[in-house]
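Need residues for this backbone.
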């Protein structure tokens, strides 16, 4: 047999040069970085959408429960609307039922407790809960003008509260960063059983 070198043709090479290997490595590395970035962005977006949906569902559920309970109340007994521990106490005298809502900034929870029962957590991951107390509901065919539930001295008076205006804000973290925030629109709830 004759060797290929003796045929007079070009020499055949078996392998890649160092430059070809480096170029191939650079292209593959760039492609991997692009694919990893797309995967991370897609995963973060998927988690963000799932978080937002879950926060929204929990907020709606809490609002439904609280609206039902507040509408059945006959009077506000007491409240604290500032600080890191906010609370609101209501009663339904006809049913001999008391109700207390409590927001704790440290645990980021909003709880409700009925007379004779243990507290029930309505919201977790709750960053803020605000409420305002008003005297009466607006009249039909007029602008929504609400008057604060204050007495002649300008102090809040729980005995004259007819409407409660509430809002809260919940959030979650993704990979250690607070990126999801879901705010409930202002809920204005009338004490329907108030005389």
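Answer:
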């Amino acid at each position: 047999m004759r060797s290929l070198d003796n045929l007079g043709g070009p020499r055949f090479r078996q392998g890649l040069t160092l430059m070809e290997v480096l170029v191939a490595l650079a292209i593959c590395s760039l492609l991997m970085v692009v694919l990893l970035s797309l995967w991370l962005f897609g995963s973060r977006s998927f988690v963000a959408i799932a978080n937002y949906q879950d926060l929204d569902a929990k907020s709606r559920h809490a609002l439904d429960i609280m609206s039902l309970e507040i509408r059945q109340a006959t009077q506000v007994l007491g409240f604290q609307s500032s600080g890191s521990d906010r609370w609101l106490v209501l009663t339904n005298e006809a049913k001999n039922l008391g109700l207390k809502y409590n927001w704790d900034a440290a645990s980021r929870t909003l709880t409700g407790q009925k007379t004779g029962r243990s507290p029930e957590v309505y919201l977790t991951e709750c960053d803020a809960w605000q409420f305002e107390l008003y005297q009466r509901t607006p009249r039909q065919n007029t602008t929504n003008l609400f008057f604060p539930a204050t007495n002649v001295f300008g102090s809040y008076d729980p005995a004259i509260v007819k409407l409660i205006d509430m809002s809260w804000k919940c959030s979650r973290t993704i990979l250690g960063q607070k990126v999801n925030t879901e705010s409930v629109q202002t809920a204005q709830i009338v004490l329907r059983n108030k005389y």
